[in-house]
Task: inverse folding
């Protein structure tokens, strides 16, 4: 963030922050809470549970792919696993994790006492468990769960059995939850900032979430429209996507990707924000080019709305369309390059230290950039026609989503855990978790580039024998990656239960309003707004 | 005639702050409804647009 002086009125926060919780106790406290910190904690706990459910599915997928031939599952169940794994990870794990950070830290970063619409906040969280359970229930229904991939392409997805309406309603609920959270975040940031906290003084995490929330508001209703049209095609005799009735299945692909590509940035922009907080803290320097970072984020968000058809080069489109979507996709490399340059320039001549959040931020910098490079390869029409629907694509988006978004979640967790719990986490265990995760991520996903380049298709439970070695390596990596996350849970639980007391500032180089309140952050903060100079 | 304004300056500050908070809360609710209606308009509008302009 830009350097911000904070006037706490010279008498600390003794009178405007208190830890008292009045209201229901026990489970009803969590069901009825409207406190932003408690709702943030609920989001994060839900996300952690979903990480293990979605991760368990990933391990089942890799178990089946350990050797060629059908080992454990029938092809339909395998396809259900890939579909539900993706839906759970995107809508149930990554997005709620960032929504949890948003709930906890946006009010603290802008000096607000809470989110602007606290009851809406409660509702947007409590939609999630019901949607998640409904989605998981589909796996046990006659005909099995949805197996058409997370892209839900018709006519394949319309062949889903009894699970179809449940899966579609679950997606609707997940979308409604995201839209309500986005509305709340925009309204909070636009109305609840402390005096003197102008837009260009806001911390980068808050900025990236403001832009993400607008993207959510633009993209999610389009997915909802597409899903509703799938339902009417299946149950009410419409033919939006049925060629037999005069419709066009490719139309759904356009609708889905008009949502789907901004969704990629909805997932990654908050991670950019977290990394932009962490690198200056552990380099003990202000963020290089703060304003450029804000404009680059906004540019990425705008461009993400006009590149959707690069996912569809193989469906056939006019040359002009191919050129537009290829070039607009490549254009995203420019603002992304600005961000990577500014992070690197922030490190330059900094007084660096390498605590766990910094390690994750640096790994993010390298590995997300690697995922970005393979994205550039996929942006080229002639190359994409070769790579399309191969494991190269799987490797690409997992490099963006795992060392990108998931490492952002890990980095943010270690960075803010002392503020949330009041205790320092075990640094040795944190670093062990980092190294195990980073090594196994690469063991899992790097060989998939070679598999894809050699022609192995995605979403298949069986493969030709020449792909065996790399698949075995990838599966071993996946099991290691999954098991390493048990250490993550242990570190969090250990930190929550006790440990060295964390100071208010926690990190020597940390700046911003969230570091002016005690650790753990009291139940109510900034009842009286701080003045930002 | 009483204007309802407290004579004690400290109370006056508190009243002003409460009025500011109420105004801000009303504006936040209004903003929330506008954004919600915008999302709803996208959702319904997109389906209507697809129905009219889509392939037939």
Result:
């Amino acid at each position: 963030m830009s350097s911000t002086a904070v006037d706490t009125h010279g008498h600390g926060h003794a009178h405007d922050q208190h830890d008292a919780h009045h209201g229901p106790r026990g489970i009803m406290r969590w069901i009825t809470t409207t406190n932003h910190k408690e709702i943030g904690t609920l989001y994060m706990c839900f996300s952690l549970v979903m990480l293990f459910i979605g991760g368990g599915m990933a391990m089942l997928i890799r178990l089946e792919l350990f050797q060629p031939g059908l080992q454990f599952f029938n092809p339909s169940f395998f396809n259900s696993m890939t579909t539900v794994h993706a839906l759970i990870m995107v809508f149930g794990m990554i997005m709620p994790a960032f929504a949890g950070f948003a709930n906890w830290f946006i009010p603290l970063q802008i000096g607000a006492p809470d989110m602007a619409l606290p009851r809406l906040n409660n509702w947007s969280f409590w939609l999630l468990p019901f949607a998640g359970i409904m989605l998981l229930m589909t796996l046990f229904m006659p005909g099995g769960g949805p197996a058409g991939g997370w892209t839900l392409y018709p006519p394949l997805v319309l062949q889903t059995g009894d699970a179809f309406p449940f899966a579609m309603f679950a997606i609707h609920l997940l979308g409604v939850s995201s839209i309500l959270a986005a509305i709340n975040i925009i309204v909070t940031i636009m109305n609840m900032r402390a005096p003197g906290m102008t837009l260009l003084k806001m911390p980068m995490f808050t900025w990236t979430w403001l832009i993400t929330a607008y993207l959510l508001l633009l993209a999610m209703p389009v997915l909802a429209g597409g899903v509703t049209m799938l339902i009417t095609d299946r149950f009410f005799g419409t033919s939006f996507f049925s060629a037999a009735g005069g419709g066009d299945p490719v139309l759904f692909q356009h609708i889905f990707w008009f949502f789907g590509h901004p969704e990629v940035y909805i997932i990654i922009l908050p991670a950019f924000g977290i990394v932009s907080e962490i690198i200056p803290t552990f380099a003990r320097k202000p963020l290089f080019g703060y304003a450029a970072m804000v404009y680059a984020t906004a540019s990425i968000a705008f461009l993400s709305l006009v590149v959707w058809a690069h996912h569809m080069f193989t469906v056939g489109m006019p040359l002009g369309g191919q050129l537009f979507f290829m070039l607009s996709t490549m254009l995203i490399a420019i603002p992304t390059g600005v961000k990577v340059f500014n992070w690197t320039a922030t490190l330059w001549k900094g007084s660096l230290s390498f605590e766990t959040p910094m390690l994750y931020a640096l790994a993010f910098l390298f590995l997300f950039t690697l995922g970005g490079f393979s994205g550039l390869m996929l942006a080229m029409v002639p190359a994409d026609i070769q790579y399309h629907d191969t494991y190269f694509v799987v490797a690409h988006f997992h490099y963006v989503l795992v060392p990108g978004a998931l490492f952002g979640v890990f980095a943010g967790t270690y960075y803010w855990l002392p503020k949330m719990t009041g205790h320092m986490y075990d640094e040795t265990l944190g670093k062990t978790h980092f190294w195990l995760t980073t090594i196994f991520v690469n063991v899992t996903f790097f060989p998939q580039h070679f598999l894809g380049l050699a022609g192995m298709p995605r979403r298949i439970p069986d493969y030709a024998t020449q792909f065996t070695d790399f698949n075995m390596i990838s599966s071993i990596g996946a099991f290691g990656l999954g098991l390493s996350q048990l250490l993550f849970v242990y570190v969090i639980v250990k930190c929550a239960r006790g440990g060295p007391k964390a100071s208010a500032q926690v990190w020597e180089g940390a700046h911003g309003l969230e570091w002016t309140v005690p650790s753990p952050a009291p139940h109510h903060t900034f009842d009286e707004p701080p003045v930002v100079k | 005639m009483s204007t309802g304004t407290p004579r004690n300056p400290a109370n006056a500050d508190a009243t002003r702050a409460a009025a500011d908070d109420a105004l801000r809360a009303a504006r936040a609710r209004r903003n929330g409804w506008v954004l919600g209606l915008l999302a709803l308009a996208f959702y319904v509008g997109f389906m209507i647009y697809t129905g009219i302009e889509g392939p037939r």
Notes: The beta strands of chain A are 6-7, 531-532.
